[in-house]
Structure formats: structure tokens, C-alpha cells
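Saturday, quiet lab. Running sequence design on the C-alpha cells for the scaffold JK sent over.
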């Protein structure tokens, strides 16, 4: 199977983006797939979330500027079949420098190409910064699909129209004609509240089958796990959060296995539009 690159993106912060990137990557690895977690966020929370230190010079920064190979930045974790390209604060500089570079939207794609050709990994998850800056645009230009974590809160859909438009532009202008929406993951779900149920219903109305059936619960154990440098399935295997991400991994892999025609990015139009 060719290596699939999946960007985990949402320009809104606090939606469970890194939590989803780390835990989905770990769960996909746990069922036997070879997974690379590419931490492209200068905050480097995905790096610490799998137990690695934030080390100066360990990130993709120089490789994206054409100085060195991205393959040399890959680090093993303590978890079987899960590797990481660490993040670090120096990626803030890359966001500025890439904007002035040639092929500035294609630097991540070009850096990842040797890893794709090696087929060393089945899936590469790219944890994007919580913005629509140059690093996120690079990730979208390199990805086969985009996975969007969306919190079960009142303003869940606010701001997604911009991400939608950018995905469509990258697709339609030929920057990345294979780009599609892999799916929307509802996070921070609280079954006790009517609000969570209403938000899920509204998002399903907009996105239809692209919304994953699995709902990620609001969970103290999920919030605790990063401070121990462990994905939830290793921190608390029998927690509700662990069960949810294991189900999401199965659903995600089922979608990858589907042999479908490429879908246009963005939500389908409703009948009254």
C-alpha cells in the first residue's frame, strides 16, 4: 500500500487537534500499521505527547529549507511501530523563511517524497499548527487527505469556511489536486449535555458521511496522558478515551481501504443551497 499522508488540521486552537493526532497515530500503530507522526507545530506538544524531549535542532526546520534530509530527523518512540519527526520552537522561523523561499508551498511535499518512496511507513500523520500559516499550507499541499478535529461547542463550525476555501483552492489550482477531506472528528463530546448532541447533529447535517461515527469524549484521563508522555492507550488502556480512539482508528483505516473516486474537499451542499 502506498504511504498515505494525512494532515490533522484546524486553525482554531483548543479543539483536540494534537490529542487526536497523537492518539490516532498510536492506535493505528497498535493494530499493526507503521506510523510516522510528523510534528509540524512549533509548540511541539505532539513530540512531548509521545515521550520525546523538545530538543533544539531536532525538528524539520533545516530540512524544509533544503539543508539536510527529513529522513534523518525520524526518531523512534517507546511504542511499537510509532516513529516521530519532533517539533521544536525553531519551526516558528520556518514559517517566516519559507514564505520567502522558492516553491514555498511545496517544501513539506518535497521533503516527504523520499519517505513516501521508501514506503517505510503506511501512514504519516502531520500535526499542523493551529493557524493557516505557511507551515499548515505546506502540510495541506503535501497531504492526500485532511482530518479535521471539531469540538462539540457552540462555535464548532466557525472558521471552518476559511479552511474549506483554502482546501478547495489548493485542489482546484493544481497545487494539490489529490487533496480531499478524509473526515471530521467530533471531540470533547459530553453525552450529558443537550448542546453536544445539537452540535453533532448540526455538523452531520453539513458534512454528512464525512463525519466519523466515533465521538471522542471529554475526558480527564485524555487530558492527563500527555503529561506522562504516553498516548491514552498506553496510559489508561481501559478508559473511555482509549476505547474511543481505538474505534476511531478502525474507522479511519476502513476509510483508507475504501476504493472510491476522489472526493472534492469541503462539505457537500445541502438540498436547500
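Result came back. Writing it out in full:
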Amino acid at each position: 500500500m502506498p504511504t498515505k499522508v494525512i494532515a490533522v488540521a484546524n486553525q482554531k486552537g483548543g479543539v483536540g487537534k494534537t490529542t487526536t493526532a497523537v492518539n490516532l497515530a498510536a492506535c493505528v500503530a497498535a493494530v499493526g500499521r507503521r506510523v510516522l507522526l510528523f510534528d509540524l507545530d512549533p509548540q511541539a506538544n505532539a513530540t512531548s505527547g509521545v515521550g520525546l524531549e523538545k530538543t533544539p535542532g531536532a525538528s524539520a526546520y533545516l530540512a524544509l529549507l533544503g539543508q539536510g534530509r527529513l529522513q534523518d530527523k525520524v526518531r523512534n518512540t517507546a511504542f511499537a511501530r510509532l516513529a516521530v519527526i519532533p517539533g521544536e520552537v525553531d519551526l516558528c522561523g520556518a514559517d517566516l523563511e519559507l514564505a520567502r523561499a522558492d516553491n514555498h508551498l511545496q517544501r513539506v511535499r518535497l521533503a516527504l517524497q523520499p519517505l513516501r518512496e521508501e514506503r517505510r511507513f503506511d501512514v504519516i500523520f502531520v500535526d499542523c499548527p493551529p493557524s493557516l500559516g505557511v507551515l499548515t499550507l505546506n502540510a495541506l499541499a503535501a497531504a492526500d487527505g485532511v482530518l479535521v478535529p471539531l469540538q462539540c461547542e457552540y462555535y464548532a463550525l466557525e472558521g471552518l469556511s476559511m479552511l474549506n476555501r483554502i482546501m478547495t483552492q489548493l485542489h482546484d489550482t493544481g497545487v494539490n489536486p489529490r487533496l480531499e477531506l478524509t473526515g471530521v472528528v467530533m471531540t470533547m463530546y459530553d453525552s450529558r449535555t443537550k448542546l453536544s448532541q445539537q452540535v453533532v447533529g448540526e455538523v452531520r447535517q453539513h458534512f454528512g458521511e464525512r463525519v466519523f461515527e466515533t465521538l471522542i469524549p471529554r475526558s480527564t484521563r485524555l487530558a492527563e496522558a500527555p503529561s506522562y508522555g504516553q498516548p491514552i492507550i498506553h496510559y489508561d488502556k481501559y478508559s473511555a478515551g482509549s476505547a474511543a480512539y481505538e474505534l476511531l482508528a478502525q474507522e479511519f483505516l476502513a476509510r483508507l481501504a475504501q476504493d472510491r473516486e476522489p472526493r472534492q474537499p469541503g462539505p457537500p451542499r445541502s438540498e436547500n443551497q
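Notes for JK: The longest strand covers residues 180-189. Strands lie at 4-8, 35-39, 75-76, 82-85, 123-127, 145-151, 180-189, 211-217. Ask whether to fix the surface positions before the next round.
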